[in-house]
């Protein structure tokens, strides 16, 4: 049963494809745990744009970070012993990375140096970081997903402040994945992949996430919501690798549009170009970047 009219479909197209030179299918520890029985050559996530228009993406199982220029030419920025997942370009041009294996990192794309930002909490390792969002006050939200799910709803949402204070806002989430913030930065949206929900989490100076609300429930299936993006109109874009699409929801949680993948089903993460309408999405199954234009 649904309370809403069917969303309008939006078609996508291929923007760029990972070149064959970077595709070397081989066993990988991350792949064995998260894609059992499948030999993969990549798994792209974490798309983010630099001020000059360079698109960065992370390849989780092989610890690689790629850049894609305006000519759609791919370059290997760095390869290291980690599992980079969510990624954002910081104000200084460095890459802030939620690394599943190593925690929160800062990587300089110019010289490929890695600087740990937060690798433990109270001397305890994280479950496995997934995604992050940066706020205007310099704080960072990041999700600690690990292997949590309906069998273990203990995933976390943290907020790291510029002075080093670390607040645990949520600790009962079934597979917290993508995270995004509304324009006023009063609330965060949190994707719970295995619960097939998106939560709306109030943000306050104190570590009190009171009255957290289920903002949207997605159809069940093989996977639930992944990456999240808020557009200039306040609409929430929800990547859904279980159904090969991205949903566009109104500020009230109403489904407005469905962006269909023109390639594989595993549409994981997205970033908006500065025009606020052109969406670039990682299609992790085929190692491609898809593009779609949202209505104004």
Question: How would you describe this protein?
Answer:
The chain has 296 residues and is mostly beta strands. 2% of the residues lie in helices and 48% in strands. The protein contains 1 helix and 27 strands. The protein has one helix at 29-34, and strands at residues 8-11, 13-17, 44-49, 55-59, 64-68, 74-79, 84-89, 95-99, 103-108, 113-118, 120-121, 124-125, 129-134, 140-144, 155-160, 166-173, 176-181, 187-192, 197-202, 213-217, 228-230, 236-240, 245-249, 255-260, 267-272, 278-283, 288-293. The strands form 7 sheets. The chain has a 5-stranded mixed beta sheet, with no helix packed on it. The two termini are 29 Å apart.
The coarse silhouette is: globular
- Estimated helix fraction: under 10%
Strand order of the largest sheet: 1-24-23-22-21
Low-confidence stretches: none
Total helical elements? 1
Rounded to the nearest angstrom, the distance between the terminal CA atoms is 29 Å
Oligomer: single chain
User: What about the largest sheet?
Assistant: 5 strands, mixed
The string of secondary-structure elements, in order, is EEHEEEEEEEEEEEEEEEEEEEEEEEEE
Number of strands: 27
State which percent range the strand residues make up: over 45%
Structural class by helix and strand composition: mainly beta
What is the average of the pLDDT values?
95
What Rg do the Cα atoms give?
18 Å
């Amino acid at each position: 049963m649904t309370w809403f009219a069917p969303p309008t479909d939006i078609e996508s197209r291929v923007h760029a494809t990972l070149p064959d030179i970077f595709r070397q299918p081989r066993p990988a520890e991350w792949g064995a745990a998260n894609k059992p029985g499948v030999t993969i050559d990549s798994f792209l996530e974490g798309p983010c744009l630099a001020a000059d228009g360079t698109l960065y993406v992370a390849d989780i199982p092989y610890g690689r970070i790629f850049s894609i220029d305006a000519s759609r030419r791919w370059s290997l920025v760095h390869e290291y012993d980690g599992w980079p997942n969510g990624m954002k370009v910081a104000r200084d041009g460095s890459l802030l990375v939620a690394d599943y294996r190593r925690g929160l990192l800062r990587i300089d794309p110019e010289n490929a140096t890695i600087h740990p930002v937060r690798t433990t909490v109270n001397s305890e390792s994280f479950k496995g970081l997934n995604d992050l969002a940066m706020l205007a006050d310099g704080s960072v939200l990041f999700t600690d997903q690990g292997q949590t799910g309906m069998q273990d709803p203990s995933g976390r949402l943290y907020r790291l402040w510029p002075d080093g204070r670390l607040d645990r806002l949520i600790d009962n989430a079934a597979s917290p994945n993508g995270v995004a913030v509304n324009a006023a930065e009063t609330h965060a949206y949190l994707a719970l992949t295995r619960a097939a929900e998106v939560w709306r989490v109030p943000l306050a100076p104190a570590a009190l996430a009171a009255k957290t609300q289920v903002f949207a429930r997605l159809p069940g299936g093989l996977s639930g919501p992944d990456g999240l993006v808020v557009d200039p109109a306040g609409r929430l874009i929800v990547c859904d690798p279980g159904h090969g699409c991205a949903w566009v929801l109104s500020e009230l949680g109403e489904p407005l549009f469905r962006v269909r993948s023109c390639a594989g089903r595993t549409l994981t993460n997205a970033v908006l170009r500065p025009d606020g309408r052109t969406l670039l999405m990682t299609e992790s199954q085929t190692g491609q970047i898809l593009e779609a234009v949202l209505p104004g």
